[in-house]
Design goal:
By secondary structure, the chain is of the alpha+beta class. It is 17% helix and 47% strand.
């Protein structure tokens, strides 16, 4: 091997991008998420229902304090909210179910999220068949796209999923899940701030006057 070739390899290995590309994106995402205590940002959610040929888009802001506290406040449709206070999960969607709020135990993860992305990051290799779906630029950031198919007996609520892992910081910037009935939900996260202050009252849900509490 010539001295020039050796020098070229040494320079490539010294570049941060080379190390990032060589890293397993699954391990990268798990490691990055393990260092997160708080996270806040904005989201855009797109739900596609092939049974009726309809697509609906919603937007809002979220704050999370791990473990167990999450605040999802919708700006579109305005007033909708999902709040996990550590003991209960409150699902308040007056745009589609006016006059009631569903209260579930915080341990019930079947219908309301208490963590946007942990479903993909808790023992992922044991729970899913994971395949590489290539690379894609998202909001000007390089990402690896990974496909997730739940293994039998894992109790997953979705039939298949897909995540976009940031090549630099390892965060999941977007994810998509398809339910057994074919309904697809894509969530795009932007404006993310890590391990900064969150508002304590964001994780408190106050039942509006005239709204009935329904145990879920």
């Amino acid at each position: 091997m010539t001295p020039m070739r050796i020098a070229a390899i040494a320079i490539a290995l010294a570049l941060p991008g080379a190390a990032i590309r060589a890293q397993d994106p699954v391990a990268h995402a798990v490691s990055a998420w393990s260092r997160v205590h708080t996270i806040r940002g904005a989201f855009e959610q797109t739900i596609t229902n092939p049974l009726v040929g309809a697509t609906a888009t919603s937007r809002g802001d979220f704050q999370q304090e791990r473990p167990g506290r999450l605040s999802i406040r919708f700006t579109q449709p305005s007033g909708d909210a999902i709040v996990a206070d550590g003991k209960a999960v409150w699902v308040y969607l007056p745009s589609s179910a006016p006059g009631r709020v569903i209260k579930r135990r915080a341990t019930d993860r079947s219908a309301a999220p208490i963590d946007f992305t942990a479903q993909f990051l808790e023992s992922p290799r044991a729970r899913y068949e994971i395949t590489d779906a290539g690379t894609q630029e998202l909001d000007g950031r390089a990402t690896h796209v990974l496909k997730f198919v739940p293994k039998a007996g894992t109790g997953s609520t979705f039939a298949r999923g897909q995540v976009w892992v940031d090549d630099v910081d390892g965060l999941i910037r977007q994810f998509e899940v398809t339910e057994p009935n074919g309904l697809t939900r894509r969530v795009h996260l932007t404006g993310i701030t890590l391990n900064g202050p969150v508002k304590p009252d964001a994780f408190t849900f106050k039942v509006p006057n005239g709204v009935k509490v329904v145990d879920g």
